[in-house]
Specification:
Helices cover 74% and strands 0% of the residues. It is built from eight helices and no strands.
Length: 225
């Protein structure tokens, strides 16, 4: 879907700058997530090496810049740039939401005493965390290369993440693991839900490679034989 618009982005235009800013935003979101996870899961002091709140504000600033550049390019260039502009604006909204959820994880880490452990659900939690981190890198690669086959493979590869997050949240509600303290159960439930939302927003970005604008965020339609 995006390939025919890449030529526009190779020029030194406002749209080109907006395109490059979207990758800076995604890189920032990836760094924020790694630091937030480290803070919540592996540190007793609930401190992070970078100020995630400042980085979240930086993402917000980039989002506004992308919108402004896209708008100004459309005013100058007309409808030729409309599809690519709409796609970029959609994508940066997803990245901004990832930044918000990452900031929420840091706030959870500050409020939660010590490391958050998964109890009976630790193995699944580690699988989900690893999948989300890998999804960041593969999503960025798919979007930059506009590789439809890689995008379709990625959408299928990590489809299971959201289901596992829902299942473990339901297990926590049902108190399947009686050894998990109430405070930890609440924190785990929230964390699983935020991991699901981050994964979902990454999937939305990936769908922009395979879907037309009106279907970004939805599963690709199978071609009729």
């Amino acid at each position: 879907m995006f390939k025919k618009w890449l030529a526009i982005f190779k020029k030194d235009t406002l749209m080109d700058r907006a395109f490059k800013r979207s990758f800076l935003m995604l890189n920032l979101a990836r760094e924020m997530f790694s630091k937030a996870k480290e803070c919540l899961r592996n540190r007793e002091d609930s401190e992070v090496d970078v100020n995630v709140r400042d980085q979240d504000q930086e993402i917000n600033k980039y989002e506004q810049e992308v919108r402004r550049n896209v708008f100004n390019q459309l005013v100058v260039g007309g409808t030729e740039n409309l599809p690519s502009g709409l796609i970029l604006v959609s994508i940066v909204i997803d990245i901004e939401r990832i930044g918000d959820y990452t900031k929420n994880i840091v706030e959870l880490a500050i409020d939660h005493p010590g490391k958050l452990k998964g109890g009976r659900f630790e193995k699944d939690l580690q699988r989900v965390e690893a999948a989300v981190e890998d999804n960041f890198d593969k999503t960025r690669s798919c979007f930059k290369s506009d590789d439809k086959n890689s995008a379709l493979k990625l959408l299928e590869e990590y489809k299971w993440v959201n289901d596992v997050c829902d299942d473990r949240l339901n297990d926590l509600i049902k108190e399947v693991d009686k050894d998990i303290r109430p405070g930890d159960a609440v924190a785990l439930g929230i964390y699983f839900r935020w991991l699901k939302r981050i994964n979902s927003h990454l999937r939305n970005i990936t769908t922009s490679v395979v879907n037309p604008f009106d279907r970004i965020g939805f599963e690709p339609k199978e071609k009729k034989k």
